[in-house]
Prior knowledge:
Blueprint: E1 8-16, H1 20-38, E2 41-51, H2 54-60, H3 64-87, E3 92-95, H4 100-110, E4 112-120, E5 123-130, E6 139-143, E7 146-150, H5 155-172, E8 180-184, H6 193-205, E9 209-212, H7 214-223, E10 230-235, H8 236-249, E11 259-264, E12 273-277, H9 294-307, H10 313-327, H11 340-352
Parallel strand pairs: 1-2, 1-3, 3-12, 5-10, 8-9, 8-10
Antiparallel strand pairs: 4-5, 4-11, 6-7, 11-12
Amino acid sequence: MSSGSGAGHVVGLAVGRGTGAEVAGIFGQFVDRFAELYGRNIRVERASRTYDSYVSLARECAGIEEIRHRTREDAEHYERFLRERAAAGTPVVFRTAINAQTLYLVRQRLRAVKEDVLDAGGARLLLVRDQAQGFYTGENEHSPGRVRRVTEFSRETTEQVLHHAVRRARQVWPGEGAARIVMAYKFHLLDGALDRWVSDFGEQHGVDVRVFQPDTVNRNLIAHGPEDRTVLVAGNEWGDIMHVVLLDRFGAGRQEEHCTRNVHLHRDVEGLVEYQTVHGSADDLEGLDLVNPLATVRAAAAVAEGYAECGGAVAAAERALAAVARAGVRTPDLGGRHSSGAVVSALLDALAAEPAPVASGRPAASVGSGSPAASADPGSPAVGGSPASSPADSGAPAAVPAAASGATGGVPAPASGATAAAPAAVVPAAPAPVSGS
């Protein structure tokens, strides 16, 4: 997609229906701009298939069986694409939104987790969402008037998730690591199996890890105030709802402005990182040039800094976002009257005005979540965690000191998460909220 001096870097790209083509185009423009600014050669390898959104399936399929068939085809193709990228040594993929059932079939098979780093008034939190097991994963069995969904939890997957959480904490908080691990799972439904696995893991590895009911975690978050260096490992049912709430409460902005990273733990693709915007496919905005580009810009900066030796790209993107915000130009979902293209043009212009990079090479610090965050271990990409070859993702987890309490705490008042766009063409105002899929 871009060319420049120096060794080449490869980024995978998977595109879904709805506004996927527009989002992918925005991603490409900013990858190109960072490649130009830093003199890097960044090649984007796109999956050969355009994946369905839920809306496209519902609109185009004749019935349940056709939806299931296309979903399975998408899942098999996307899994194959990720495996091929990992085998080729590609460390990172950017994906636009696709149908949830497709995603969770792949996430279960490749044992994915989603992570985000948040700062709650100085109390540092690492959220690790378990996407590899639980009630979002599994196959559907249909009979007249019924859907039976079969899901699974396993000791092996639970331990993999916990190992990863400890390793990741050591990356984002170098020299410190996690002080405690708090797990939010509906474990009472599992006949004592999950809490037994967790207890055994903690004893074997010297880790302070405790499992709570989701409502208990919520109560403690509201009542007490978060403790510093807490790793919150969440069943995805809780994490899906609370992730957006935590973004808002901890000053990380709206989901339309935010990107996150998924890490695959299966040994065949271990360490392969997938970036995504938090917003959905927004099929209602398809072709209207109104999709909010901010999360995609942040994802492009995170990928460029973490995987293409564009040190400082995240900070440069944030400066551009702030400059554009001061100009008062934004898409309708943020109260503005500007098109997506107008916002993109303004941000590209703001980046072009950046001084030449002082240094290239490894990034300084970021987790790609919408604001600069903690640095990774030396020698590993700060934004993307670890490719499979990174030493930071190998070995046994470090012991976590015992905590006085296993609870996470309350939530401070929301901070500002301002971002926006810069001057350009004005389009008619439209309500057009970004809709998930």
